[in-house]
Design a protein that fits this description.
The chain has about 140 residues and is an all-alpha fold. About 70% of the residues lie in helices and about 0% in strands. The protein contains five helices and no strands. α1 runs antiparallel to α2 and α1 crosses α3.
Length: about 140
């Protein structure tokens, strides 16, 4: 490694750009996760008083994807989970309203309101962070080889 490859912070320039790309990807994944959860959960599928099985399957797929992202790319998972949780906290603090009678299925503003009244987005955010932390902890506690 030459001295031109080292930055003032001790990181290689390429590593710094990869870290920035992962954080940016995490921001996008977090926003998309909030929207996808709201769209799946409010899908206009038939069902009298129960949740439609396709909605449950869709939410399970989002949860499985959250675990996969968090374990495969811990930086992306932590960032995305933090974004989901911050969006949820923002929606709750701002008292964004959401009602089932006036919801528009694909509306981003309704997705924000859904985050305020449902536990689904918060659970996805917690899963993203937890999976990333478990992966990062497992990696850092392994013996040196």
């Amino acid at each position: 490694m030459t001295t031109s490859e080292i930055t003032a912070g001790g990181l290689r320039a390429g590593h710094r750009y990869r870290l920035a790309a992962r954080i940016g990807t995490g921001l996008v994944v977090g926003v998309v996760a909030v929207y996808v959860v709201a769209v799946i959960a409010t899908a206009p599928l038939g069902g009298d008083s129960t949740t439609h099985p396709l909605v449950l399957a869709g939410l399970a797929l989002v949860g499985a994807a959250a675990v996969a992202v968090g374990t495969r790319w811990p930086t992306v998972g932590v960032t995305a989970g933090a974004v989901v949780l911050l969006v949820t906290v923002f929606a709750v603090v701002q008292r964004v309203s959401w009602t089932t009678g006036t919801t528009q299925w694909l509306s981003p503003t309704d997705a924000l309101g859904y985050a305020a009244v449902s536990a689904h987005p918060a659970m996805v955010g917690a899963v993203l962070v937890s999976a990333a932390v478990v992966r990062g902890r497992r990696r850092s506690t392994s013996p040196d080889r």
